[in-house]
Amino acid sequence: MKQHDAMYIDGSWRPAEGRGTIEVVNPADGQVIATVPAGSAEDVDAAVRAARAALPGWAATPPQERAARLAALRDQLVARADEIAATVTAELGAPLAFSKAVHAGAPIAVCGSYAELAGTYAFEEKIGNSTVLHEPVGVVGAITPWNYPLHQVVAKVAPALAAGCTVVLKPAEDTPLVAQLFAECVDAAGIPAGVFNLVTGLGPVAGQALAAHDGIDLVSFTGSTAVGRKIGALAGAAVKRVALELGGKSANVILPSADLAKAVAVGVANVMANSGQTCSAWTRMLVHRDRYDEAVELAAAAAAKYVPGEKIGPLVNATQQARVRGYIERGVAEGARLVAGGPEEPLAAGCYVRPTVFADVTPEMTIAQEEIFGPVLSILAYEDEDDAARIANGTVYGLAGAVWAGDEAEAVAFARRLETGQVDINGGRFNPLAPFGGYKQSGVGRELGRHGLTEYLQTKSLQF
Ligand code: NAP
Ligand code: MG
Question: Which of 25, 210, 227 to mutate to test the pocket of ligand 1 (most atoms within 8 A of CB)?
Fold first, then answer.
């Protein structure tokens, strides 16, 4: 595994001002696999200065040329896909096949989509006697989590660069190695010095310094609601733009006319993917009272196939493992019925949690309200469609969801009633061009596709 004992600032790897270091641990076996520098406020400041200095040149670069650099970046990601997958597997613990398909595959698709959009987007439009210019917002501070470590980086950096913004990235402390690999790809793609800068470090130090820096025009954050709240408050006080992609507690609503076996199988797979560490995971399954027992049986059998260490990886670290096990204990204590898994550790070593399914979950239980961020599914019964809609909408979150029905129109009619940013109809496929983001406390703003690009643009109207 390649590693840099340095920060990528202004087009080169330079030693950190901060003296601290971060140990990167493989959660599958607890081994320390690398050490990276823990950036200080001085490192953040150096990176922001570099990004500011590079801004006028990059903002004035013709969109076609920005598109060409993004296409070169995509090609770098393609060329190094195996290395990306191996790195994410080492620092996050994801099974290698999943790392290849998703952790390496999704960023390639998203980067490619912005290479295309940068070249085709109308950065100028006519409205009556006005010409409206869509100009870059400026310098972007990007703060990303560890759960889809490269995807979340690319979902911010690619549209920012396409828009003509420059970027300082503070990746999660648990997954800095794939961020360093990404910086190498940026460098090899011929993106000018200072346009992209990387500061590894701790959230409350480097992340906080970045979010609070005067030289940042927009903060784009993905992570917990608790930290998102703080970042939103800082941005509000400074009157700067902010985008927040936060948690979720998404509902998988299976209507009575649905193909139950398929809906349950896909629903369980959705929750177990990435060891349940997915903000958009359908962690609540809503089933009609008449088909409830059948659904519980199918879900328990499906979950049992996720053998820890084989089909499902560990959680990212011991803190998350303890947190998720605590939620499972809480579910039992509040009276939910365990039908698969449980709080016991499945393996002697590594941060594993047993794939867990709870039945007889009621809407007010903690496990039906809070984001667990682990392989834990709660199954709730509903009486009729109104009841299902009320339960589905009955959390502070609204990021994603699913609806299953015998015919598409019925599912779509129900999807219109959901207070959420994305709904998959009868198992619809992931679309890297569709806007992704939250209603309610799941966030502010949208990522991906043209909606993700406009987050990084501001308008200037010229009247004639
Ligand atoms: P987190 O603390 O919100 O981490 C997200 C990012 O924010 C990381 O880069 C983190 O740095 C940084 N950060 C932390 N405190 C900060 C601060 N005061 N100012 C600026 N940046 C700061 O999330 P976590 O602790 O890793 O995970 C906890 C829970 O958050 C999970 O159980 C899950 O519920 C939720 N979560 C949601 C998502 C999502 O995609 N919506 C992703 C991850 C986690 P460090 O890495 O150094 O902490
Ligand atoms: Mg944290």
Answer: 227
